[in-house]
Amino acid sequence: MTYSVAVSGASGYAGGEILRILAAHPDVEIRTVTAHSNAGQPLIQHQPHLRSLAHLTLAETTPEILAGHDIVFLALPHGQSGQYTDALGDTPLVIDAGADHRLESVADWDRFYGGDFHEPWVYGVPELPVAGAKQRARLAGASRIAAPGCNASTVSLSLAPGVATGVIDPSDIVTVLAVGPSGAGKSLKTNLLAAEILGTANPYAVGGSHRHIPEIRQALAAARASGAERRTTADEGIRISFTPVLVPMSRGILATSTAPITPGATDDEIRAAWESAYAGETFVQLLPAGEFPRTADVVGANTALMGLAIDRAANRVTVVTAVDNLVKGTAGAAVQSMNIALGLAEGTALSVNGVAP
Predict the structure, then answer these.
(1) What is the CA radius of gyration of the chain?
(2) Looking at 99, 103, 150, 301, which residue is catalytic?
(3) Distance, C-alpha 53 to centroid of its chain
(4) Which DSSP category does 309 fall into?
(5) What pTM was computed for the model?
(6) Is 348 a catalytic residue?
(7) What's the rounded mean pLDDT across residues 242-263?
(8) Where are the beta strands (DSSP E) in the chain?
(9) I need a labelling partner for 295 at 20 to 30 A (CA). Which of 10, 61, 107, 250 fits?
């Protein structure tokens, strides 16, 4: 069966990456691409690297144009997807790459985003430990999927194995991320101009204000519920100090996350938690002891590569994870989740191989 697909926000970075991946997917046909201010213009004018899709023209983003497809991808700014998802009730599969359907808590939405709250959808991080299994079990047969925030999924995958098994204490998580500007979208912003970011590193959303914090807490809470043997108490909170730093690379996230070791946890138990969680996973890979990833190793790939260190002097576990924010962080996760929902081979059209140099 060939599935018809519409992609909204097709002139942006996330929409363009979804299209790049789907263009090589044998089971889908990209029939419609939409935009707002760029509607009426050739797709190739805004995505000149997508030569195989040069025949497509950007249509207006309206419920009527998006309807009538088997699959709709929404790659719109946060707060804009809900107006369309409400009108796509007859669409068999809708995947939102924005934040509108990620959060379960109304209070978190009001604090970090604001505007109308929309019901949470199945979270699109297949490898995430949850409820004694993996999130992919919830994605099988899903009709509505919330693709993750790139920073959020990177940190969640980094720490979920330790939280699930109770070998780390989630009440004192510290994570610092080096991130590329493509994660902020394609809209013109002064702080993202080349003259502003080349040769410098700029922290932003410091002091607990980043919108991905509640998404991480939500994911780690789900992972904690999956732990069969708990060393920590059920009512222990998940607290995160989260600091992203904008660096001059167009793509990529390098997240360095640390958390205290739970009393009694041995080095073997700690490493076994991550080895067990990701054994056999194609797209989340734990590197051998003593090795750590570079963002250069994941550019263009749907892989999350991570290295684990046990710092007994500080009594903390450190996990360093690299992803391409536009692939595993967004579009790749969306397509991987689509494959699972439709019962297709999970890795269809997705690569573990990056681009070098």
Answers:
(1) 20
(2) 150
(3) 25
(4) E
(5) 0.95
(6) no
(7) 97
(8) 3-8, 28-35, 58-60, 71-74, 93-96, 122-123, 129-130, 133-134, 144-146, 173-179, 202-203, 240-246, 253-260, 284-286, 304-311, 316-323
(9) 10
